[in-house]
Design goal:
The protein has a four-stranded mixed β-sheet with strand order 2-1-4-3. The relative contact order is 0.16. The radius of gyration is 21 Å and the shape is elongated. It contains seven helices and six strands. It has 198 residues and is α+β, with helices and mostly antiparallel strands.
């Protein structure tokens, strides 16, 4: 059984692409799938090299760029795989970001993709709770139009009923929103289980 500190190290992927600077490493679980698609599981190259030296990962692909120590030169890893499997989390945290991801970053009333907020389907003033089953992504105009009325009284309809997503569903949705930068060495590992065109 892995100790908690070791497990936490393997799950600490960078969530902010701006913090990666240059030459991030794609981190794969021991089953050769990314730990996360959205945000994509990336480590700064320094963390990737550290994990290599600690024998926690194996290098699958490298950048052409080299870093040097006093005695040695190392190619920077571009794809690494964990040597021990990290069990994916079963429960998806109920956060604003995950709500928007579940709803594919579009208003659940009109389908627009800009200036999103969230809306309680059954308004809180009418006993509605803040939960996966009662909150949806909504654009500001739709949110104002619905106000604190029920769907029936507002004359509005949902594109799909809100529900709690599974981690597998969130993984699948996340794959449809790739980050701005995808290194060519990552492609086989990001889409290896996608259905092939005939």
């Amino acid at each position: 059984m892995l100790d908690q500190q070791h497990t936490d190290f393997r799950l600490q992927f960078v969530r902010e692409p701006a913090g990666l600077r240059q030459h991030p490493a794609l981190v794969l679980n021991a089953d050769y799938r990314p730990l996360s698609y959205y945000p994509l599981s990336l480590w700064p190259w320094q963390e990737a090299l550290k994990a290599v030296f600690l024998d926690r990962v194996q290098i699958l692909a490298e950048y052409d760029q080299v870093v040097r120590s006093q005695r040695q030169a190392f190619k920077i890893p571009s794809v690494i795989v964990l040597k021990e499997y990290v069990r994916p989390r079963k429960r998806v945290a109920f956060t604003r970001f995950n709500l928007f991801l579940r709803d594919e970053f579009c208003c659940q009333y009109c389908g627009s993709k800009g200036d999103l907020t969230f809306d309680h389907v059954v308004p809180r003033s009418r006993g509605g709770v803040t939960s996966w089953e009662n909150v949806v992504a909504a654009c500001s105009p739709c949110n104002l139009k619905k106000a604190n009325r029920s769907l029936r009284h507002s004359g509005m309809k949902l594109r799909r009923a809100p529900r709690q997503p599974s981690s597998e569903e969130m993984h699948a949705v996340g794959r449809r929103f790739p980050p701005n930068h995808l290194h060519e060495s990552w492609m086989d590992f990001l889409y290896w289980d996608a259905e092939l065109d005939s």
